[in-house]
Amino acid sequence: TLQNVTISPSENCTSPDFCWTEGNVTWTLKNITETEYISKCQHLFANSDLPDLAIGLILLALSLLVLCSCLVMIVKLLNSVLKGQVASVIKKTINTDFPFPFTWLAGYLAMLAGAGMTFVVQSSSVFTSAITPLVGIGVISIERSYPLTLGANIGTTTTAILAALASPGSTLKYSLQIALCHFFFNISGIILFYPIPYTRLPIRMCKTLGNVTAQYRWFAIFYLLVCFFLLPLFVFGLSLAGWAVLLGVCLPLFALFIAVVVINIMQKRRPEKLPEKLQNWDFLPIWMHSLEPWDNIIMASLAFCGKHCCGFCKCCKVNAEQEGAKDKQIKTTEVYENTMAMADEERGGRRAAAVASVDKTGTNNTAL
C-alpha cells in the first residue's frame, strides 16, 4: 500500500513531486508492505499458552517414549519371527565366511551391505537399531555386526554429500568440502580400527561392557551418563577456563588412564613382569577395583521399590528366577524350535550360578 511516511531531512526523497515539509518534519509517499496472518498454523500446541521451553520438554519426553517403545517392539517382533529354520538360515547366510585365503573378504562385503542399506533408508541410526536386537538374539555375531556398523557409518555420509550437491553454485565448493570431510573422517576410522585384526578394539570393548552390564544392570545407565553427559560437560568446563587448565588437568588423568590399561593387560598376560604389589589390585580399597560395593549401595537404595523395580532389585531377581524355573519346566514338555535361544538360556543359567557363587564367597577382583 502507498502510505505517507516521515523521513529525515538529509534523506533523499523518493520523488520531488511527492515530498513536502510540515515544520521540522519531511513527508513523502512510499510503498509499505504489510503481512496479515488470517489463520494460525495447525499443530499440536497451536492454541496452547505454554512457553516454548515447556513445549520443547514435552515433545522431548514424547519422542524418547516413542523411540524406546519402538525399540522394545522391534526386539519383541524379531524374537517372535526369527525362530527355528528362519533363524538358522539367516545366521548361516550373514555369518558365513569365504574359504581360505579369501576369509578376510567377507567383512568388507558386509561393509558394502551396511553402506547400501544405510543409503536406502538414509539413516544409520535406523540400520544399527535394527541389527542390535539381531545380535542380542544370536542371529548376527558381534564380529559380523562390527563391519556392518562401519559400513553404516560410510552410508550415512551420502546424505551430507547429496545435500551438498543440491547447494547453489556460490556455496557448492564449501558445502562439498565439509561433506567430504565427514566422509574421509569415517574412512580414517575404518582404516585405523578394522584392517588389522589386533586393532579391532571396539569388539573387545563391547564384549567387556556387555559382560559387566549383564552382571550389574545399573552400569548401562551409569555408562551413558558419564560418557555422554558428565565427561563432555567436564571437558567443556575446563576448556572455558583456558588451555592451560584443560591440559593441566586432562593430561595427568589421561596418563593415569593409559597406565591403568597397560597394567591391566600385563596382569592378564605377563603378571610375572610386574612388581609383586602390582600383580593384582588388592592393595587398593575394594570400592576402587570392584563394582560389588557400588552394586550393594545401589540395590539397597532401590530396595523400597518392591515388585515394581523392573528387575533391578535382588527381590525381583529371586522372583524372576523362580518364575523362570517354572517356565523352564513347562517348556521341557513342549517343542522349542529355536536351538540358539535354548543355548542362550543354558549359558544364562550357568552365568547366574557363577554370579551366585561370587556373592557367596565375596571374592570379586574386577580390574579398575
UniProtKB/TrEMBL annotation:
<dbReference type="Pfam" id="PF02690">
    <property type="entry name" value="Na_Pi_cotrans"/>
</dbReference>
<keyword id="KW-0325">Glycoprotein</keyword>
<feature type="transmembrane region" description="Helical">
    <location>
        <begin position="126"/>
        <end position="143"/>
    </location>
</feature>
<comment type="similarity">
    <text>Belongs to the SLC34A transporter family.</text>
</comment>
<protein>
    <recommendedName>
        <fullName>Sodium-dependent phosphate transport protein 2B</fullName>
    </recommendedName>
</protein>
<feature type="transmembrane region" description="Helical">
    <location>
        <begin position="243"/>
        <end position="265"/>
    </location>
</feature>
<dbReference type="GO" id="GO:0016324">
    <property type="term" value="C:apical plasma membrane"/>
</dbReference>
<keyword id="KW-0739">Sodium transport</keyword>
<feature type="transmembrane region" description="Helical">
    <location>
        <begin position="98"/>
        <end position="120"/>
    </location>
</feature>
<keyword id="KW-0813">Transport</keyword>
<keyword id="KW-1133">Transmembrane helix</keyword>
<feature type="transmembrane region" description="Helical">
    <location>
        <begin position="53"/>
        <end position="78"/>
    </location>
</feature>
<dbReference type="GO" id="GO:0005903">
    <property type="term" value="C:brush border"/>
</dbReference>
<dbReference type="InterPro" id="IPR003841">
    <property type="entry name" value="Na/Pi_transpt"/>
</dbReference>
<dbReference type="GO" id="GO:0044341">
    <property type="term" value="P:sodium-dependent phosphate transport"/>
</dbReference>
<keyword id="KW-0915">Sodium</keyword>
<keyword id="KW-1003">Cell membrane</keyword>
<feature type="transmembrane region" description="Helical">
    <location>
        <begin position="174"/>
        <end position="196"/>
    </location>
</feature>
<feature type="transmembrane region" description="Helical">
    <location>
        <begin position="150"/>
        <end position="168"/>
    </location>
</feature>
<feature type="transmembrane region" description="Helical">
    <location>
        <begin position="216"/>
        <end position="237"/>
    </location>
</feature>
<dbReference type="GO" id="GO:0031982">
    <property type="term" value="C:vesicle"/>
</dbReference>
<keyword id="KW-0769">Symport</keyword>
<keyword id="KW-1015">Disulfide bond</keyword>
<keyword id="KW-0812">Transmembrane</keyword>
<dbReference type="GO" id="GO:0005436">
    <property type="term" value="F:sodium:phosphate symporter activity"/>
</dbReference>
<keyword id="KW-0406">Ion transport</keyword>
<dbReference type="GO" id="GO:0030643">
    <property type="term" value="P:intracellular phosphate ion homeostasis"/>
</dbReference>
<comment type="function">
    <text>Involved in actively transporting phosphate into cells via Na(+) cotransport.</text>
</comment>
<keyword id="KW-0472">Membrane</keyword>
